[in-house]
TrEMBL record:
Species per Swiss-Prot/TrEMBL record: Pontivivens insulae
CDD domains in UniProt: URO-D (cd00717)
Class of enzymatic activity (EC top level): lyase
Lineage: Bacteria, Pseudomonadati, Pseudomonadota, Alphaproteobacteria, Rhodobacterales
GO cellular component terms listed in the entry, alphabetical order: cytosol
Quaternary context: Homodimer.
UniProt keyword Protease present: no
UniProt-annotated location(s): Cytoplasm
Record-given protein name: Uroporphyrinogen decarboxylase
Catalytic activity of the protein: uroporphyrinogen III + 4 H(+) = coproporphyrinogen III + 4 CO2
Length: 342
């Protein structure tokens, strides 16, 4: 049996204490992250400098002894590798060249050129497999096609993904061709991460909840399943975690139809509902409100224990319902861990 608790949970085991990690565990709430980030220059320089990307991945493992490490990179590296211009504007988020027509789509580069941009990420994975403690598995990741497409179409984050939804309605052919291109690039990218040493992969569909109900199956589940099937064909035992954030009642369908071993639940999901409708079919991951790591105190301790208790009847990985925010206190993370591990 594996000594890696995360892999045991993903294999369906109910553990006395769940393994713990946090989305965005390498991030701006940590002073050591901010120092390495300053040394690297820009956020993208940090992503593409393997020694420094490995260093920020390791920082939260050293500080908190989390049960998993997640590769330091970003879901928007795939659009960049496909030829989109990408910058991160301090305090505002990403900016990309937009795709609103078949001509824009045609200007993207070929799939077989993406490794020219992405190869430093594979080097980061190789360094991490050498340097991580043996009991800490490495999670590789990518964005799901719909979520990546929302940024490629709008050229930035938007509150409601209106530009992507308009292309979906107005030029379905271009929209679907873009999803197919991202899907193919993502399969290649994740296979390369696994070959380099990632032991689990997670697919972030952060904007799944913005998809209208009638097309959830077509644009969240079907591309997700395509990726899962392609990875499984090469690596039958690879554990895969899906994160269809905001999927609500569709969480159960998502798990059933994609066949993921793990599913990350966002903050809006009630553990009592998920324990009944999702957990019997997959290991659940989540779902503490990240704001509690800003608030701290008894509220944090109580909510943490409630999440652990709510999912104690099955396979569970303790995590947040979304990423930890820059204003969270590093000490509150210790308090959360104490409440999980006792
Ligand atoms: C939507 C999305 C992105 N990136 C990601 C998602 C999906 C998860 C989610 O919903 O949060 C995924 C991601 N981004 C990052 C990681 C690294 C690993 C980790 O979780 O620790 C992961 C897994 C680093 C990052 N990605 C980003 C930072 C902050 C950049 C900085 O240091 O200035 C980090 C640590 C920047 C980023 N990256 C993205 C945005 C919109 C932004 C700007 C907003 C922000 O600043 O938080 C796109």
């Amino acid at each position: 049996m594996s000594d890696k608790l995360l892999l045991r949970a993903l294999a369906g085991e109910t553990l006395p204490t769940p393994p713990v990690w946090m989305m965005r565990q390498a991030g701006r709430y940590l002073p050591e992250y901010r120092a390495t980030r300053a040394q690297a220059g820009s956020f993208l320089d940090l992503c593409y400098t393997p020694e420094l990307a490995a260093e920020v991945t390791l920082q939260p493992i050293r500080k908190y002894a989390f049960d998993a490490a997640i590769l330091f990179a970003d879901i928007l590296l795939v659009p960049q590798a496909l030829g989109a211009d990408l910058t991160f504007v301090q305090g505002e988020g990403p900016r990309l060249s937009t795709i609103t027509s078949a001509d824009d789509l045609a200007r993207l580069g070929p799939l077989d050129a993406i490794d020219e941009v992405l190869s430093p990420v594979y080097e980061t994975v190789r360094i991490l497999r050498r340097e991580l403690p043996p009991e800490v598995p490495l999670i590789g990741f990518a964005g799901a096609p719909w979520t990546v497409a929302t940024y490629m179409i709008a050229g930035r984050g938007t509150p409601d993904q209106a530009p992507a939804r308009r292309l979906m309605y107005g030029d379905t052919t271009t929209f679907e061709a873009l999803l197919d291109k991202i899907t193919a690039a993502t399969i290649h990218y994740l296979l390369k991460q696994v070959e380099a040493g990632a032991e689990v992969v997670k697919i972030f569909d952060s904007w799944a909840g913005a998809l209208p109900g009638p097309v959830f199956e077509k644009y969240a589940i079907a591309p997700g399943k395509k990726i899962v099937d392609a990875l499984r064909a090469e690596h039958p035992d690879l554990p895969i975690i899906g994160f269809p954030r905001g999927a609500g009642g569709n969480y159960a369908t998502f798990v059933e139809q994609t066949g993921v071993q793990g599913v990350a639940l966002d903050t809006s999901v009630d553990p009592a509902w998920a324990a009944k409708h999702v957990q019997p079919h997959a290991c659940v991951q989540g779902n503490l409100d990240p704001l509690l790591l800003v608030q701290g105190g008894e509220a944090l301790t109580k909510a943490t224990k409630d999440v652990v208790k709510g999912f104690s009847g099955g396979a569970h990985i303790f995590n947040l319902g979304h990423g930890i925010t820059p204003d969270a206190s590093p000490d509150n993370v210790h308090r959360m861990l104490e409440a999980v591990r006792g």
